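Researcher: We're teaching a course module on how sequence relates to structure. For the next exercise, students receive a sequence and then see the predicted structure as tokens, so they can try to spot secondary structure elements on their own. Here is the exercise chain.
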Amino acid sequence: MKKIMIVVLVILMTCLSAQAEMTGKQVALMTPYLGSVTTNQMVEYLKDDLEAKGAVVTVINTNNDFSLLASRIEDVAISGQTDAIVLVSADPSQVANQLQDAFDAGIPVFGCDSGFIEGMAVNATSDNYQMGELIVHYLFDDLMGGKGTVIALTHRPHPGVVKRCIAFDEIIKDYPDIQLITEQHVPAEQPINDAQTIVENLLLANAEEGSITAIWAAWDEPAIGAAQALKEAGRDEVIVTGVDGNQQAVSLVAEDGCLKATVAQNFEGMAAIVVEEMEKLFDGQEIEFGEKYAPATLITLENIEDFLE
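Model: And here is the predicted structure for the students to work with:
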């Protein structure tokens, strides 16, 4: 009994010690894309996990404005009123000068589904190139049978999305019987609505049934918009795929309509990696700098039950 009590006390002391390292720490979660469903999820996971460990969390959203993001990073770094910065879904190379102010001030910078530049601690993300390969091969081989036409809906300023786009660019070269009709940039502010409008216009330009085989969307929200446009136009023959595994997309896959597949990113896992590495750093432990990956999973009608909430 005494041994059991000692073990329990050791575990309890370890937990309290770990929490103590985060208690009172000021952490700034910074993103230009809080309006995005998945970015918002990551921010909530991070906020909940950090606050559970005693950190004081401030969320800064710049509403798609990278100039304002740069300014806010500079303010935070110069003021010295934060102990750590987490960039969420933001390309650090676009705010590199301001991040250097944070590095110079000794403020550790983490990324969650962002890119990584020298000076940062850790960026937790998915292997976006591998996700791109996974969904493109599933679309081209399993759904299209290696032939047909495809439209690409992209947003290359996003560091994760651009890696999926690069995978698409490279893989389509190996499919001479698949023709890219067009690539369309989808703005990040209202991606579902904008994608729906883009696809509506493309359907008018490609009105003949069978003229479009598939629409490859680099993330779920434009895939949802594309599926809505196709449904309203009665173009059920067109196949759509997305990436992210957000619940609206998963529900559409379950309906067995135009949206046939997505890839579930482990956003909760990414947040957990960031919090764990930050905790180690505050505890004085050595960490391995660079990118760390949370595993992703292809979602199709065959395994959809595992992902429905």
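Model: If you want an answer key for the exercise: The chain has a mean pLDDT of 92. The two ends are 42 Å apart (CA to CA).
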